[in-house]
């Protein structure tokens, strides 16, 4: 099958919905990444918090993801294209206020506001994408938006590196928030006439026929938390990685993601979600096992990079859902999937932290088990071939971004 390659500039020119999402992805990525980069230093140096305080704030940060089902109720009163703008505005507001409320209570409040905006943006972003792009377009759109996020993260890191040496924390946070607002205003001006071509179900949708989508989302969230929390902890605690070394790994991850995400999209279109997810889960099982049993900082750093690449294969869960779901169920189902994905985010760090004290290998072995369970569940995926005949209406075949 001939590969279809998509250039971001072509999508921007030919589809106003993509341009809308493109602008919002840049803004929110810069705001969230900038907030995250400054947070630990700000919390310790400026506010004087300890590890328990920071842990409590980070746990609170995941609660809005767990409450993503509320998006369904908000859609009763607000159009989805307006809700995504409001969500991004909350993120910008939370980032700006962070520097002006240097206390534990203040950080709890600003973190919740920022996180509420970020998680509701992610939910509506996925929903709008699946509603407006065909089954062949959506893998490319999801992958290229991930590349946009990666590029924006690199920009945010570089901006913080420059500004942090000359400006205080409150000024840094204000600049980041204002940049987000600039992109929000531009996106608002470019808002498409209709972001929901098919009227969406305004009730909570939990259907038996979507059970596999729910299960795979939960397992994905569980594995993701083990990677996010314990992979970095391993490198810092066991191998004594410095902030600079971890930052370099993060930059490398984002640079690589810019180029690998379009390849993932082509894998999905050429070989299907089942094969793509089989590659992901098999590779991640090997990676998590290697975390536990290969005693080398170089190997750990390499695994961290490969880990990040293969986790991006998870867009196959959403594109598989798009092919088998009722179109009117996309918005409420994305909210349900996001909530289910974050169940693990609320409970796993706490449980994993306890078993880490017993033996640091246990969380990684648990992740291996989760990978094999996921491999078992994808055997229930049903084949879907009709998307091969759907034309890419708004996107020309050009070179990959």
Please give a handful of descriptors for the protein shown.
401 residues; mainly alpha; 75% helix; globular; disordered C terminus
Could you describe the 3D structure shown?
There is one protein chain. By secondary structure, the protein is mostly helical. It has 15 helices and no strands. Helix 7 (137-163) runs antiparallel to helix 10 (243-271), helix 9 runs antiparallel to helix 12 (297-311) and helix 11 (273-293) packs antiparallel against helix 15 (362-377). Residues 387-401 have low confidence and may be disordered.
- Taken as a percent bin, the fraction of beta residues is under 5%
Are there runs of 5+ residues with pLDDT below 50, and where?
Answer: 387-401
Biggest sheet descriptor:
none
End-to-end separation in angstroms reads: 21 Å
How many H/I helices?
15
Rounded average pLDDT: 81
Rough outline: globular
Judged by helices, strands and strand pairing, the structural class is mainly alpha
Order of helices and strands: HHHHHHHHHHHHHHH
Determine the fraction of residues in helical runs and give it as a percent range. Answer: over 70%
Tell me the radius of gyration.
20 Å
Number of strands: 0
Can you give me a brief rundown of this structure?
Helix content is 75%, strand content 0%. It has 401 residues and is mainly alpha-helical.
List the helices and strands and how they pair.
Blueprint lengths: L7 H7 L1 H31 L4 H16 L3 H5 L5 H19 L5 H29 L4 H27 L5 H21 L21 H27 L5 H29 L1 H21 L3 H15 L3 H10 L5 H29 L3 H16 L24
């Amino acid at each position: 099958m001939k590969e279809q390659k998509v250039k971001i500039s072509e999508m921007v020119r030919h589809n106003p919905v993509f341009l809308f999402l493109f602008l919002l992805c840049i803004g929110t990525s810069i705001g969230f990444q900038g907030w995250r980069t400054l947070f630990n230093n700000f919390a310790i140096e400026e506010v004087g918090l300890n590890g328990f305080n920071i842990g409590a704030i980070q746990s609170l940060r995941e609660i809005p993801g767990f409450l993503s089902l509320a998006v369904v109720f908000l859609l009763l009163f607000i159009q989805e294209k307006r809700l995504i703008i409001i969500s991004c505005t909350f993120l910008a507001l939370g980032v700006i206020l962070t520097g002006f409320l240097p206390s534990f209570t203040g950080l709890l409040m600003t973190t919740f506001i920022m996180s509420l905006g970020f998680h509701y943006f992610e939910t509506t972003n996925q929903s709008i994408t699946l509603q407006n792009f065909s089954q062949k377009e959506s893998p490319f759109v999801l992958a290229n938006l991930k590349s946009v996020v990666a590029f924006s993260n690199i920009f945010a890191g570089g901006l913080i590196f420059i500004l942090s040496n000359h400006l205080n924390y409150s000024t840094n946070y204000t600049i980041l928030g204002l940049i987000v607002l600039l992109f929000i205003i531009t996106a608002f001006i470019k808002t498409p006439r209709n972001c929901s071509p098919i009227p969406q179900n305004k009730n909570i949708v939990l259907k038996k026929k979507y059970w596999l989508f729910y299960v795979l989302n939960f397992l994905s969230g569980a594995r993701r938390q083990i990677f996010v929390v314990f992979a970095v902890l391993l490198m810092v605690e066991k191998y004594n990685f410095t902030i600079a070394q971890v930052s370099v790994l993060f930059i490398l991850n984002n640079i690589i993601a810019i180029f690998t995400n379009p390849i993932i999209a082509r894998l999905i279109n050429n070989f299907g979600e089942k094969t793509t997810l089989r590659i992901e889960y098999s590779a991640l099982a090997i990676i998590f096992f290697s975390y536990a049993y290969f005693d080398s900082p170089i190997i750990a750093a390499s695994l961290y990079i490969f880990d990040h690449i293969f986790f991006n294969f998870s867009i196959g869960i959403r594109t598989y859902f798009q092919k088998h779901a009722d179109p009117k169920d996309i918005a409420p189902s994305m909210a349900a999937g996001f909530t289910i994905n974050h169940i693990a985010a609320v409970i796993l760090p706490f449980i994993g932290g306890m078993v880490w004290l017993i033996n640091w290998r246990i969380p990684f072995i648990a992740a291996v088990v989760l990978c094999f369970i996921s491999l078992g569940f994808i055997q229930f995926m049903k084949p879907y071939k009709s998307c091969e005949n759907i034309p890419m209406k708004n996107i020309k075949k050009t070179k990959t971004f």
